[in-house]
Design goal:
The chain is mainly α and 497 residues long. The chain is built from 22 helices and two strands. It has a two-stranded antiparallel ribbon. Helix 15 packs antiparallel against helix 16 and helix 18 packs parallel to helix 20. The chain starts with 25 loop residues before the first helix and ends in a 10-residue tail after the last helix. The N terminus and C terminus are likely disordered.
Length: 497
């Protein structure tokens, strides 16, 4: 994606009336005001959460349905076999046999029909296809919300909408703001009727930017075309499916024949959910940086926060696949040194936990860490699983480093494997004077679990809790503000990741 910029009006429309049900709800008003500041980020957060929910639904339900189906088939098989005569000398059932009573025959017939019906049903395939098409329903909704967020925050774009409206329709609106919203909704609805190829082409022309120059574009088109044949052609391959996919650069491993029925395997579904997440994220941050270049600091902080949250949700492969975009030149433009290094560390975590150790090592080696904060050196050692050296750095950092603070040992996914080492808990106790503990609030009161440490046997019980401590590693703005003079000492990367 190129790095051209355009200057648009920044005057946000302030005339939107507050929803009636939020007038007396301070928390709802506060959330609305917060989202007004970063509407693109919050539109993306809702989209990624929806895609993750669909994936979680698949992970939970598909194995249960498969298990249920196997169990039911086994029950039907046993119901059939109890009516069968003894096996022949060839250890096989006789080809023809007679049942003694009408009741036995009725029971056998019922069991046989049930068995055949179960064998013909494709429960997991039906659900997988439904969840697959739902991914695109969420993508469509996200596109609308993303465009609405951009237009409402930029008066010049909003005024550029040109649509006809009759005087009678105009008189139905209460104020000019209602007219704006109505016209914008119609504009977005018209936009969403186009194919994804046409949608991306339209956005490229409108914002003078390249949106289809990424390696997975052909795969994205194939996903969307497969959705189309599921929806409109019963899953049968059409000539249009083949034509569009190949025209847009998709390479078939085994080119299907026209009329062949396609399917969605669990692996394919997982790849689809990650790619649709990535396309949505790339689109959001590319348009955000293009239309609102003055918000570059907020953009970098938001992207780091998005990656961090995905790591917390253990979306390792998604973060790994996202690293090429997150560390591309356009996404590194005007980024602070500390934000860049946090992004590299978090990208390396995704690669490491996806068993892509060589790729993780590659991006870590792209930067000179020798003059960096000890906090970063600790992160490198942990990723490299050099735990003995990591313990030494952890102790030297003490209670609060330049970046790492006590909550981060609990919440940063970087430390998930580090916390499996017994030495970690001894070091934690030595640094903070208390055992590593997690506290959970239950209806019957708080329950606290502490990690066993050789240095804690004689400790007094403490009421300390981490429940109200928020993660700090996502942005570290407070740490940066207190150490501005130190931040400038961090070396710049020697090469691009």
């Amino acid at each position: 994606m190129n790095d051209n910029t355009i200057t648009l009006a920044e005057n946000q429309d302030k005339s939107t009336m507050e929803p009636e049900n939020n007038k007396n709800n301070p928390s709802a008003r506060a959330q609305e005001e917060y989202e007004k500041d970063l509407p693109i980020k919050h539109a993306l957060e809702r989209y990624l959460a929806a895609i993750r929910s669909i994936g979680t639904t698949a992970n939970i339900t598909l194995p249960h349905i498969a298990k249920w189906w196997i169990s039911e088939v086994e029950k039907s098989r046993k119901n059939i076999e109890k009516h069968l005569p003894e096996k022949t000398e060839d250890n096989d059932w006789p080809k023809r046999f007679t049942l003694e009573s009408a009741r036995e025959f009725a029971e056998f017939s019922s069991a046989a029909r049930e068995f055949n019906e179960l064998r013909e049903q494709k429960f997991t395939k039906v659900l997988t296809k439904s969840l697959f098409t739902q991914l695109f329903a969420e993508f469509d909704a996200f596109i609308g919300e993303l465009l609405k967020a951009i237009y409402l925050k930029n008066d010049k774009l909003l005024k550029g909408i040109s649509r006809e409206i009759s005087l009678s329709d105009l008189m139905e609106f209460d104020d000019i703001n209602s007219v704006k919203i109505s016209m914008l909704n119609k504009e977005i609805e018209t936009f969403r009727r186009d194919s994804y190829i046409d949608q991306f082409s339209t956005l490229e022309k409108k914002f003078n930017i390249k949106l289809r120059k990424f390696s997975e574009w052909g795969m994205f088109v194939e996903l969307s075309q497969r959705r189309n044949i599921f929806t409109h052609n019963g899953g049968a391959v059409s000539d249009q499916y083949l034509l569009v996919c190949e025209r847009e650069g998709y390479k078939f491993e085994n080119r299907p024949k026209i009329g062949e029925i396609t399917d969605v395997t669990f692996e394919y579904f997982g790849s689809a959910s990650r790619l649709l997440s990535k396309v949505g994220l790339m689109l959001a941050y590319t348009l955000w940086s293009k239309v609102f270049p003055h918000e570059i600091s907020e953009i970098h902080t938001a992207l780091n926060d998005t990656i961090f949250r995905c790591l917390q949700h253990k979306r390792w492969r998604f973060v790994a696949e996202l690293s090429d975009f997150a560390l591309s030149e356009p996404m590194r433009k005007n980024i602070s040194e500390i934000d860049l290094r946090i992004r590299i560390i978090n990208a390396a975590i995704g690669l490491k936990f996806s068993n892509l150790d060589d790729e993780a090592k590659k991006i870590l080696n792209s930067v000179d860490w020798s003059a960096s904060y000890r906090d970063f050196k600790l992160a490198i050692l942990v990723i490299q699983e050099q735990y003995d050296e990591a313990i030494k750095i952890m102790k030297s950092i003490g209670k609060s480093g330049e970046i790492i603070r006590q909550p981060d040992y609990h919440t940063w996914p970087l430390f998930s494997k580090f916390r499996e080492q017994p030495e970690f808990y001894d070091a934690y106790y030595e640094v903070y004077g208390e055992a590593f503990a997690e506290r959970i609030e239950t209806p019957k009161g708080a329950v606290e679990a502490s990690a066993k440490s050789g240095k804690v046997s004689a400790r007094k019980k403490t009421n300390s809790s981490i429940t109200d401590i928020t993660p700090s590693i996502t942005s570290h703005k407070s740490a940066i503000s207190k150490n501005k003079t130190k931040t400038t000492k961090v070396l710049k990367p020697k090469t691009s990741p």
